[in-house]
Amino acid sequence: MANLALRDLVKSYDQTEVLHSINLDVADGEFVVFVGPSGCGKSTTLRMIAGLEEVTSGTVEIGGRVVNTLEPKDRDIAMVFQNYAIYPHMTVRRNIAFGLRTAKMTRARKDARIEEVADLLGMTEYLDRKPNQLSGGQRQRVAIGRAMVRDPAVFLFDEPLSNLDAQLRTQMRLEIKKLHRRVRSTIVFVTHDQVEAMTMADRIVIMKDGYIQQIGSPAEVYHSPANTFVAQFIGAPSMNLMDGQGSASGVTLWNGVDLKTGKGAGAEGKAVSVGIRPEDLHVTETGGMLSGTVSVAEPLGAETLVYVDVDGQEMIASASGRTPPKAGDRISLNLEAENLHLFDAASGQALA
What we know:
Number of helices: 8
Strand order of the largest sheet: 6-7-8-3-9-10
CATH architecture of the largest domain: 3-Layer(aba) Sandwich
CATH class of the largest domain: Alpha Beta
Number of strands: 20
Structural class: alpha+beta
Mean pLDDT: 91
Helix content: 10-25%
Largest sheet: 6 strands, mixed
Radius of gyration: 24 Å
């Protein structure tokens, strides 16, 4: 499968630049997910790769060739949309076959390819049904099958799971990931859902306001966020951020608590943001570094999310056990320096 490269990609509407110098290399067989809030530029980037949006400047390369001036049909890509875009009057077989309408193949080879793709997707028994006889998940599989049947260099997915209910989204995430492992295609997937990004991607591209904020594996962006935006966008619930000031030994929090961190060299005397994930805040009855009153407790089964008012700042901790704290309880919170993240308060950038 061909690789994909974006070089200094820019998109402007009239005189307004909305996508700023995007650079990315996608390896053969890699699963890359673009994620970010609405309006961040992720779908615009995908549409430029597909040839559905004109490139203002920069290049899109697929398999080593610049495709900026090529029509979508000539780029060796296939796209799966949010709304399925399958034909209601056609059977599953004919919908999948539609992807081969311009292929120079014998009828026998086309039929064999349709059967092969249907088998991969678990849709063989539904080949002669029409879309109104299928579930939402099955209709999405048909859309994927129509893209797969062409065996393109790059698959593009534009929020394909957004219209499915929560249970079906989870199921389809797993199916798409399994499918990728079987066929090892190059996939570029766009979503606003950070859970989809974390569970499916080999690498994640996190965007905000038309800029790439960070590119990395799910573990990298979760455990080593490049800035406060990534820190709070990735993770559910998001990372706690506390105001502080760098000190010779670490950091002094907004409430006067001193933490020896061994991090943030050069931050002495500077305003910093101190981050810690809810699962790294340990709930104790007494003796913790921080203390506060539980305002809300959200039982989730194996854990309970505890919202704690600590000297006027709300913090979220994850409590395990069968008797978690409840609203109104006074509790203590412990943390370990190795789990802290330090960011420059002005720029939001991570400090080493």
